Amino acid sequence: MFVQPCTSGLPRGRFAPSPSGDIHIGNALSALLSWLQIRRSGGSYILRMEDIDAARCRPEYARRIPGDLRWLGLDWDEGPDIGGPFGPYTQSERMELYEEALTRLSAGERLYPCFCSRHDLLQAAAAPHGLSAEGPVYPGTCRRLSAQERSLRAAVKSPSLRFAVTQGELTFADGIAGKQTVQRADGGDFVVRRADGIPSYQLAVVVDDALMGITEVLRGFDLLDSTPRQLMLFEALGWSPPRYSHSPLLIGPDGRRLAKRHGGITLAELRESGVKAERVAGWLAWVSGLLEEPEERTPRELIAFYDQSRIARQSITVTPGMLAWLTN
Question: Which residue ranges does the record assign to the Glutamyl/glutaminyl-tRNA synthetase class Ib catalytic domain (predicted)?
């Protein structure tokens, strides 16, 4: 019996980091803004570990992340370290739920096996208009296979599973980026389970958000292009989607995402160098547009300043001078 989605009626938000590294100030910005959004509305906040990509994720990072967030001044009502009614709160412990979702999609004839190799996909990506923001647009090769052809290929190769997208327009309102309209088929049919049996990020995040009753998703702008795919999965599974808001990314003067080459640092490094948590929180609120000037503030103090209409809609270029205030 498939677990039914949580419908508490109260706002529910989440921060769902991948434990592939320590929390960087760019991740911390998404965490702070999503926390402020929920605390301002009096809702519940959830911490979830998206560790489904075992090759990149490490247990030591999963253990350190809650401490880094607490140092910044954030708290949560449910999570892997404190439990809650809609756990587990770690993706690697939720595989059975993802399989149930795949079974439901398969019963609705929304999935098909794909036997294409990485080489096949790279060849397809070389064609004009062959790349989407999320990678190669799948040309639909295996969608057209007959049952006999699928059986023959399955005898020699384990397939991935793809979601068959439909034609038509998809429109949604983003709380920060504004109205978004895309063609459903623009991104092509996408993988929901890899050939090794691991569910995709797109499937797992939809199942988790639905069953945990998430009503508000505030995350980085780099995930805006994932939203149409997730909305299509919500629709196919018969679940109501959350409201999405995508916050600006922190980039360096060279236009690339902020990294160590720019002096971008983790919360752990800031703490170890003696920087106060209030300075980090106030700096993040300033660069995002919530404060007019950088000043030391606790996240609790920043709740009163939270106004989503003030959050920057464009990527934020972080100059050496801006970082100097943070680390001084």
Answer: 13-275
Domain harbouring 45, CATH code:
3.40.50.620
Q: Which domain, by its residues, includes 135?
A: 96-203
Residues 198 and 120 in one domain: yes
pLDDT of 55: 87
Q: Please list the residues that pair with 161 across neighbouring strands.
A: 113, 193
Q: Is 14 annotated as a binding residue?
A: yes
* Domain final position from 178, 203, 228: 203
Give residue 6's pLDDT: 58
Task: Specify the pairing of strand 178-183 against strand 169-174.
Answer: antiparallel
Confidence band, pLDDT 50/70/90 cuts, at residue 9: confident
Give me the pLDDT at residue 257, please: 84
Q: Is 228 annotated as a binding residue?
A: no
The catalytically annotated residue of 157, 179, 260, 276 is 260
Return the structure tokens found at 45.
């906040």
Q: CA 17, CA 216: separation in Å to the nearest integer?
A: 16
- pTM of this structure: 0.92
Report pLDDT digits (tens) over 32-88.
999 999 999 999 999 999 999 888 999 999 999 999 999 999 999 999 999 999 999
- Report d(CA 172, CA 84) in Å as an integer: 31
101 in the same domain as 45:
no
- Confirm whether residue 86 is marked as ligand binding: no
∠185-313-320 over CA atoms, to 5°? 120
Among 244, 121, 241, 126, CA closest to 190: 121
Identify whether the C-beta of residue 309 lies closer than 8 Å to the C-beta of residue 174: no
End-to-end CA distance of the chain: 56
Does residue 276 carry a catalytic annotation? no
**Structure-block tokens of residue 251:** 């980039």
How far apart, in whole angstroms, are the C-alpha atoms of residue 130 and residue 278? 46
Residue 143 assigned ligand-binding role: no
Task: Please give the full DSSP string across 6-64, using - where no structure is assigned.
Answer: P--SS-EEEE---SSSPPBHHHHHHHHHHHHHHHHHT-EEEE-B----TTT--HHHHHH
